[in-house]
Write a sequence for this structure.
């Protein structure tokens, strides 16, 4: 993921400079839909630091956590027309949220203009060192015997980490308890502070704590083991089908970032200029056909239904999910 960011940074720099020409009085704001400390926030701040080194443009990172990224989308949609705003979003906020949020209020085809794909990454299941488990099977056995050890935290309802947990619960027949946060950072912090026994997040966000022994990584998603954690088995290896990369269904496993997305009010000329300078451009026509759109994300509707998760009611602060009891 870091290499992808480095390759893309110079081109995004040119994009932001072009955007700045239309808003010379204002800094360009990168809006992140999750709290500071998580993977997306780290990407945003690394990007902003590199762009600010030029001294020719000011890039500001602003966190708008809540509703699995929807608060960030609302901030962009409701901004004034002369605002220089870009939003960094995980693909799951577009793929899954339409099926989990009854108040899904935006249309990706109309409200967002895609610019580039910045990175992809796998997910990992990690537990606190105090949890007496060296494997996923051992953790699930403990969780099955103790409600206190059955909780796992994620960045929020309706994103890939949530459904990794729900799929593991369903297929193992262990009633795990989902604890949603407003970002990966708070979830990881609570796992480090032993407030929750387990956390599911991106592998890059977990690795620093895994390497210094503060968390234990039990499994990852992917067709192959993560090159940064070759000793950790994949869910596929452990007998959990569905969470591996499939042609045309990249969102099923890897959380594909569609990070730099412009408000549709941005002048078309500026948008085309930004896209032309990106190393991994995402043309509008390709975006409209992409499986991240609600109209073509039926696979997630099926997965969500099978996991027994019903759409939650409110957008910003009240997180609530209902589970259908798993039949033996």
């Amino acid at each position: 993921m870091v290499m992808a960011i480095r390759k893309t940074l110079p081109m995004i720099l040119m994009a932001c400079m072009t955007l700045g020409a239309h808003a010379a009085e204002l800094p360009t704001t990168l809006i992140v839909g999750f709290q500071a400390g998580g993977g997306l926030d780290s990407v945003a701040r690394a990007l902003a630091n590199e762009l600010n080194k030029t001294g020719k443009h000011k890039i500001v990172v602003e966190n708008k956590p809540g509703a699995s990224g929807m608060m960030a989308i609302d901030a962009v949609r409701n901004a004034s027309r002369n605002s220089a705003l870009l939003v960094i979003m995980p693909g799951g906020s577009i793929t899954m949220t339409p099926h989990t949020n009854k108040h899904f209020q935006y249309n990706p085809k109309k409200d967002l203009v895609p610019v580039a794909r910045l990175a992809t990454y796998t997910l990992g299941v990690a537990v606190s060192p105090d949890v007496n488990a060296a494997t996923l099977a051992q953790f699930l056995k403990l969780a099955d015997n103790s409600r206190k050890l059955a909780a796992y935290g994620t960045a929020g309802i309706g994103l890939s980490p949530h459904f990794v947990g729900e799929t593991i619960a369903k297929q193992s027949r262990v009633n795990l308890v989902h604890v949603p946060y407003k970002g990966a950072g708070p979830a990881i912090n609570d796992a480090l502070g032993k407030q929750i026994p387990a956390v599911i997040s991106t592998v890059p966000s977990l690795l620093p704590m895994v390497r210094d022994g503060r968390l234990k990584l039990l499994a990852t998603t992917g067709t192959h083991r993560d090159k940064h954690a070759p000793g950790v088995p994949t869910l596929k290896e452990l007998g959990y089908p569905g969470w591996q990369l499939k042609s045309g269904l990249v969102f099923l496993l890897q959380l594909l970032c569609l990070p730099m997305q412009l408000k549709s009010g941005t002048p078309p000329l500026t948008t085309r200029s930004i896209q032309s300078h990106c190393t991994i451009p995402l043309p509008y026509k390709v975006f409209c056909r992409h499986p991240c759109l609600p109209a073509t994300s039926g696979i997630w509707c099926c997965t969500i239904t099978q996991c027994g998760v019903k759409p939650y009611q409110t957008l910003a602060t009240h997180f609530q999910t209902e589970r259908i009891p798993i039949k033996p």
About this structure: The CA atoms of residues 161 and 200 lie 5 Å apart. The chain has 13 helices and ten strands. The longest helix spans residues 2-20.
